[in-house]
Amino acid sequence: MDKPLNLHEFEPLAREKLPKMVYGYYVSGSDDEVAVNQNREAYNRIKMRPRMMRGVTTRDTSVEVLGKRIPFPVIIAPMGFMGLAHEDGELGMARAAAAKGIPMILSTASNHTIEQVAEAKPDTKWFQLYVYKDRRVTEKLVQRAETAGYEALVLTVDVPVLGKREADMRNGFHLPEGYTIANLVGDEMGDMRASAGESGLSEYMRNQWDSGLEWDIIDWLKTITDMPILIKGVLRGDDAQIAVEHGARGVIVSNHGGRQLDSAPAPIDVLQEVVDAVDGRADVLMDGGVRRGTDIAKALCIGAKAVLIGRPMMWSLAYDGQAGVEYALDLVAEEFDNVLAQCGCKSTDDLTPDLLMR
Question: Helix (H, G, I), strand (E, B), or coil: what is residue 255?
Fold first, then answer.
């Protein structure tokens, strides 16, 4: 294949480079992968009705998220174990984000430490948190992120138990020798070897992560950090409202890339409900199946401030490290700018609901 022309085209190139176990971990969803497929299909059901003759010679693709202006409405989603995709790992992803001026959300389950990624100087860095049964481990992670200059805390709430990811079970997913969850060492890390019939991640999560979370966890986090807190994994308006009532500054509409509950709706299909429930009291973001500039525009028309992109960023990292990610971000930014022009929009503020047919 020639050089990719869009985000879709990075995946087959990455597949050629990655070991079966690693590719299977990144690409797979849970159960029958209905949610994975619907995340993409949902965008196709939404049509766009462009305006004409609006004088769009110059366009402003920037948006404001958590009070900070970013050049286009894309955030790199939190993804674990980037070092398995390319030796650049999270450092390459962070440097690419810095080069393009967009936020990157670092996963708890990263192959490089909070501090190492901070030194790579992404323009805006957020930290994604899984809450551990040992709250001292959790508190230490949060404090390290704040000390290192991370600007927001993203609490993932849609993994009380791990979804049944059959590819990982078949492949015996585990961290190969030489790879660790770099933010956790010694007894804090535990073991991530695969057991018979399940993945190493599944066993690790069951032993380490707290499945008993309730909404007051936000109250506790607010006592240990001044970072704004975003809640990732919301698919209902009432949950979004509860999150805001507990002080969340942002809500991320997400079904974990189709990797958790396989009957979960596509995030774009419930975005309106969440936007209405939040009613301007917090920033609403979303992820799930975003591949095209039109996908981003549709989310913003409904009321999202920006979108998170996950797997395509991992494929582009596998394709060519930091340079691959920068190239992928350029492609989607150019597509989004093209959509603004095609729809008669001078800025992202012009992406309004009347552009959509649903």
Answer: coil
pLDDT digits (tens, 9 = 90+) for 218-266: 999 999 999 999 999 999 999 999 999 999 999 999 999 999 999 999 9
| DSSP 8-state assignment for residue 124 | E
Contacts of 81 by beta carbon, 8 Å cutoff, 6+ apart: 25, 109, 110, 111, 175, 179
Contacts of 243 (CB under 8 A, 6+ apart): 215, 218, 231, 234, 251, 282
CA 189 to chain centre: 23
Gap between the Cα atoms of 266 and 287, Å rounded:
9
DSSP 181: -
Counting beta carbons within 10 angstroms of the beta carbon of residue 337, is it exposed (0 to 12), middle (13 to 18) or buried (19 or more)? middle
- How many Cβ atoms are within 10 Å of 9's Cβ, its own excluded? 18
Catalytic residues: 256
Q: Taking the CB of residue 142, how many other CB atoms lie within 10 A of it?
A: 22
Q: Rounded to two decimals, what is the model's pTM?
A: 0.95
